[in-house]
Amino acid sequence: MTNRAIIRPRHAILTILIALALSSSSSSVGSEPTNETDLRWFRGNTHTHSLWSDGNDFPEMIADWYRAHGYHFLALSDHNVLSEGNRWITHDEIVKRENSEALAKYVNRFGNDWVEQRGTPGKPDHEIRLKPLDEFRKLVEEPGKFLMIQGEEISDQAEGLPVHLNATNIEKLLPPVGGRTVSEAIENNLRAAEEQAESTGREIFVHLNHPNYHYAVTAEDVAAVIRERFMEVYNGHPGVGHLGDEHHASVEQIYDIANTIRIGQLGAPPLFCVATDDSHHYDGQQPVRPGRGWIMVRAAELEPDTIVRAIKAGDFYASTGVTLRDVRYDTDKKRLRLEIEPDEGVEYTTQFIGTKLGYDPKSEPRVDAKGKPLRTTRKYSAEIGQVLATVKGTSPTYQLTGNELYVRAVVTSSKPHNDPSFKDQHQQAWTQPVGWQERLSEESKRANADTGGN
Asked: Which pTM does this prediction carry?
């Protein structure tokens, strides 16, 4: 497949994608679901690492931490491996990962009858068995309260750069497929996930991870891959370049640029935003810790396919501490309304962000100190992803004028983040973009006209 084919999909394919997006958007951000009283919010994390790859704790201990801290679901997403099969790890290896107390805490929590060891303690042959998900889920799961969902971080590369995607609710391992370009690698791995979903009948969703990790994925890269519908707008790893720098756009700028290209130039559905931990360290000392970012999903029950369907419909928001009682987009009145769960003594500022029709689409490359073009998101007009309104209080509302490609809300609390991943971080919440469906409907009509309705 050529890169051009990715960027400019055939009208028939694009029409199908638009139709699917429009059909799923009827419940997006909670616009009048059928059984409102049956829905509730579920808190979950979809990006987590354990001793099965490069994390430093046992999967049961990690799941137990999330359950104890008010989460409802968790997807372990180790690099190119599932928690399955017979696997042993030496105690020396665990200590090398700077968690020398991991085994003692593991035994103390679950007992010697559960923890399987062999060899001689204190010697190189001392090993501990890593329990597979199917074996340990019985320890931590509780119907309606806590659920484990199988996941994987598909860790690929292209053009000498890391390309990572998280696949959630998979049945079998998804080996990285690769590609000649970053866009092609994303596209190919998404196609593999879709093929598994079709063959197994499972609901699977795949989100692009930390685009600014090694500044590998540009806004143009992710905008081009229409199959991708999800992107991390926040990742709790301190080393993912969340804020960008003088040569690189921030992750939120990448998000707005990509969505503007999709809706405004490709007539394609936008990306939905995800917040995750990307946690690796559970000793309380190392920097990549749990509890920094999550998603809140509105669904009827705590069941894997139900959770994923709600995510695909956009009925969720991303958070690093701000809780929303409600997110509602009235499609008739074209009004986006939020209800924030107040915290005593805390103030809330909501920015409604979007791109207006008639924006300047021109861009220019970013360059280094010597004027050499960099492979990074290009520079765009400030009209892209601009603040359309700022509202104080716990019931912010934005009335769309019909002049927007899309609108999304970012709520920022006056309360600092409990465990910041970057300087001066405050608690926030991000809603999904709205108001874009009409633009896609127009594009769908044009595409059908171009193909004679076939």
From this structure: 0.92
